[in-house]
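quick q for whoever's on today - can somebody do inverse folding on this one?? i tried earlier but teh output was garbage lol. tokens:
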């Protein structure tokens, strides 16, 4: 199901969105990544989102009828976070957020995805990201094997 273009808005997150973004982040990770080692308490995650992620990154939210359904965070050319509220995937919301990320970093983006997160990996590959490297988990705090992806405006798009 694709959202009506006018029903979803993409806007810059504000500090007042921190609580809703944190709830979405926690719910999404629990639903999509139940195998993932939890390194931080819910309170620590809420504090990190409010005081670090929103303060240092560039975060955009997808909003429908006042409710945040997803968000993306950029740190320069790194796509650091992209999460959707459980039950709202396959509506085009992730694609809208990714389009905003590409607009904000039009030459290049990189991201890490957990190797077992096959849905996310397939999503990024459908949107032109290329697998660059895999790792045994030594480079993330969860200790979970991950994959590094890159997208570039100069990458060929045939077959997409």
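ok took a stab at it. sequence:
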């Amino acid at each position: 199901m694709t959202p009506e273009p006018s029903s979803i808005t993409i806007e810059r997150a504000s500090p007042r969105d921190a609580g809703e973004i944190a709830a979405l982040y926690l719910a999404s990770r629990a639903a999509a990544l139940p195998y993932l080692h939890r390194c931080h308490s819910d309170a620590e995650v809420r504090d990190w989102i409010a005081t670090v992620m929103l303060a240092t990154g560039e975060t955009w939210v997808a909003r429908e009828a006042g409710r945040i359904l997803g968000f993306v965070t950029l740190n320069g050319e790194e796509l650091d976070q992209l999460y959707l509220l459980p039950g709202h995937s396959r509506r085009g919301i992730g694609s809208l957020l990714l389009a905003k990320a590409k607009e904000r970093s039009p030459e290049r983006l990189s991201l890490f995805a957990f190797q077992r997160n096959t849905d996310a990996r397939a999503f990024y590959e459908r949107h032109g990201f290329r697998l660059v490297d895999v790792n045994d988990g030594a480079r993330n705090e969860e200790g979970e094997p991950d994959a590094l992806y890159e997208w570039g405006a100069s990458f060929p798009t045939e077959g997409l």
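fwiw The CA atoms of residues 12 and 85 lie 17 Å apart. also The chain has one domain: 9-152. so keep that in mind when u check it
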